[in-house]
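Technical note accompanying the year-one report. For the benefit of new consortium partners, we illustrate the data format agreed upon in the data management plan: each record pairs a sequence with a structure-token string. No post-processing was applied to the example shown here.
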Amino acid sequence: MNIIATFLILIAIVLSLLTCIALIGWWRGIDSVVFPGLGLVVAMPALIVLLLILNIGFVFAVAVVKPRTESVSETRLEQKFEYPNDIFGGCGNGVLDLSIAKDPKNWGQNSNDHHLKVCINYDDLDSIHEVFAPGIIKSENYERGVNYEKVIEGNQNILQKFTLKYPMLGRIEDMYEDYIFTPDEVEKLREECLQLKTEKPDSAADLALRKLIYACDEALKENSYLMFSSD
């Protein structure tokens, strides 16, 4: 909840208390009010009406004021993206956990260092690679009788071409290695993701790219390193 909403709630609470005291003073008489001095001030009908109006106004204001949300920064390509909290799903084992840090060697020393609660997995990488090369064969789709060595060799050739065109994305290869991108490299990684998005990726690839774009945006806002940590 933001500061404005909190302030309005406090005012509404104070006005509610004053209104109650005023009504008691008006109904039972000033002399019988628990706080006679205060009752003398607030037991006037006109002031009671004013307090009621103000109280209703502040309660209404609290209801309509929305908590402040951090807007995603304008992209370098004049594009904007929205990131609902649940769009990326959960994380599991065997994934890369994304975080940002001012100094990767001393993670957590800066107050802005934090986990992004976003993970990248093999399905994300496969989906991204398929945007570049729809014919790439995933390991789980191998058929009986297929020469695995030739399939793997063909996939490796495709991935080499992918890395030549998208060097930042090409660095992310395995879930059991850590990767660190400098602020300048984060900018390049982001541009590569945006470029791939123009290729009309399917929903899985689009989700994977949105994860990376979001992570890059968060790192760039703090001029921090983007870290991919094996979980």
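Partners are asked to follow this layout when depositing records. The chain has two domains: 3-64, 96-230.
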